[in-house]
Amino acid sequence: MKRVLITGAAGFLGSHLCDRFLREGYHVIGMDNLITGNLDNIEHLFSEKNFEFYNHDVTKFVHVSGELDYILHFASPASPIDYLKIPIQTLKVGAMGTHNLLGLAKAKNARILVASTSEVYGDPQVHPQTEDYWGHVNPVGPRGVYDEAKRYLEAITMAYHTYHGLETRIVRIFNTYGPRMRLNDGRVLPAFVGQALRGEDLTVFGDGSQTRSFCYVDDLVEGIYRLLMSDYAKPVNVGNPSEISIADFAEEIIKLTGTTNKVIYKDLPKDDPMQRQPDITKAREILGWEPKVDRSEGLKRTYDYFKSLPEEKLYKKEH
Ligand code: NAD
Ligand code: UDP
């Protein structure tokens, strides 16, 4: 039986990856220090004989007994309010955490896939973003702690590939959504849905003309699985190219939830990217992948999940 280590396992994406690899017949070792994740996301896995969980901070030396075939490194705060609250930990998990996992992959002769992000493109001046665009990042701005941590993650991963011959994969993930996002994580979808469910106005930052392109989690997981199994070591964008302004997105959430509350406008956070859309030509050509779930279907599934949560989660301010 093949063995895979998934870091960030108690988070949104990590928990869905654990589900997928268990379904594919792997022995899954989940690792997380629960700084932004929650055991509720993987509670259903504790009875599975092929699942183990290590509560561990990956910025500290990482030890796993036995063989490993694959490592998926997803540990990192991911939402702007999380990484602004814990900036040093964000830099450390991207730098020291990634270094530890690359060292582990080398020791175990395992293939490693690391989670990068569309944030490596910063506030992009090329649209849509292709993998050969180098980006437009403010290293000393508020988002620099996340963007630069991820740029370092890519650089050190490529160095292990080039200098040690390690089998590495780099996925550049664009805004992904779905069940198990934290309602209070500040990202736009849980923010709007939480506001609608609590009967509050929806807070659009800036004039709402900035764009994002939202990918449903099942599509992302499929893209990651295919990339891991491919022989392609350079970064690959995985995201849904369907682009929408944040103002229009707020209207979609208002329709979906049937809320009678309105949109209010707040200041745009510093360095908030004005437009973002993945060019997925590479994913199409190399992985034979493209998204299958359109936004109306994905939003419906996600809203059903949020509606099913106990009421106290709706009003929980802090993680
Ligand atoms: P998340 O916050 O839900 O999950 C991250 C998990 O990592 C959490 O469970 C957290 O406790 C854990 N973690 C953080 N620091 C750790 C450490 N030092 N040691 C061990 N565990 C640690 O976020 P997510 O949305 O699931 O994101 C997962 C990964 O995907 C991140 O690396 C993120 O940068 C990347 N990503 C996500 C998106 C997205 O749209 N969701 C987009 C681009 C990139
Ligand atoms: N946003 C917003 N209202 C909110 C939360 C976010 O208008 O309550 C905006 C935010 O300024 C950004 C977009 O929605 O332009 C996406 O934000 P998110 O934090 O989800 O992702 P990221 O900026 O990292 O892509």
From TrEMBL:
<keyword id="KW-0520">NAD</keyword>
<dbReference type="InterPro" id="IPR016040">
    <property type="entry name" value="NAD(P)-bd_dom"/>
</dbReference>
<keyword id="KW-0325">Glycoprotein</keyword>
<protein>
    <recommendedName>
        <fullName>UDP-glucuronate decarboxylase</fullName>
        <ecNumber>4.1.1.35</ecNumber>
    </recommendedName>
</protein>
<comment type="similarity">
    <text>Belongs to the NAD(P)-dependent epimerase/dehydratase family. UDP-glucuronic acid decarboxylase subfamily.</text>
</comment>
<keyword id="KW-0210">Decarboxylase</keyword>
<dbReference type="Pfam" id="PF16363">
    <property type="entry name" value="GDP_Man_Dehyd"/>
</dbReference>
<keyword id="KW-0735">Signal-anchor</keyword>
<dbReference type="GO" id="GO:0005737">
    <property type="term" value="C:cytoplasm"/>
</dbReference>
<dbReference type="GO" id="GO:0033320">
    <property type="term" value="P:UDP-D-xylose biosynthetic process"/>
</dbReference>
<keyword id="KW-0333">Golgi apparatus</keyword>
<dbReference type="InterPro" id="IPR044516">
    <property type="entry name" value="UXS-like"/>
</dbReference>
<dbReference type="GO" id="GO:0070403">
    <property type="term" value="F:NAD+ binding"/>
</dbReference>
<keyword id="KW-0812">Transmembrane</keyword>
<comment type="pathway">
    <text>Nucleotide-sugar biosynthesis; UDP-alpha-D-xylose biosynthesis; UDP-alpha-D-xylose from UDP-alpha-D-glucuronate: step 1/1.</text>
</comment>
<keyword id="KW-1133">Transmembrane helix</keyword>
<dbReference type="InterPro" id="IPR036291">
    <property type="entry name" value="NAD(P)-bd_dom_sf"/>
</dbReference>
<feature type="domain" description="NAD(P)-binding">
    <location>
        <begin position="5"/>
        <end position="301"/>
    </location>
</feature>
<dbReference type="GO" id="GO:0042732">
    <property type="term" value="P:D-xylose metabolic process"/>
</dbReference>
<keyword id="KW-0456">Lyase</keyword>
<keyword id="KW-0472">Membrane</keyword>
<dbReference type="GO" id="GO:0048040">
    <property type="term" value="F:UDP-glucuronate decarboxylase activity"/>
</dbReference>
